[in-house]
Amino acid sequence: MTNLRAEGVSLGYDGLRVIEGLDLTLPDGKITAVVGPNACGKSTLLRGLARLHPLDGGRITLDGADITAMPRKELARKVGMLPQSSIAPDGVRVAELVSRGRYPHQGWFGRHSSDDDAVVTTALESTGVAELADRPVAELSGGQRQRVWIAMVLAQQTDIVLLDEPTTFLDVRHQLDLLDLLTELNRDRGTTVAMVLHELNLAARYADHLVVMSAGRIVAEGAPSDVLTSEVVDEAFGLRAHVVPDPVAGSPLVVPVGRYHSSAVEPSAG
Amino acid sequence: MSTVTAVADLRAVRRRRQTLVVAGMVLVVLVAGTGALLIGAAGLTPGQAIAGALGLGDKGDVFIIQKLRLPRIEAAVVVGAAFGLAGALFQSTLRNPLASPDILGISSGASLGAVIGLLALGMSGVALSGLAFGGAGLVALAIWLLAWRKGLHSIRFVLVGVGFAYLCSSLVAWAMARAEENEAAGVLVWTVGSVSDIRGEQLALVAAGTLVLLGAVAVVSRSQGPLSLGDDNARALGVRVDAARVGALMLAVALVALATSAAGPIAFVALVAPAIARRLVNDGGAALAASTATGAALTLVADVVGQHGLLGVAAPVGIVTGLVGAPYLLWLLATNEKRSR
Question: B3-340: which CATH number, 1.10.3470.10, 3.40.50.720, 1.25.40.390, 1.10.8.50?
Answer without folding.
Answer: 1.10.3470.10
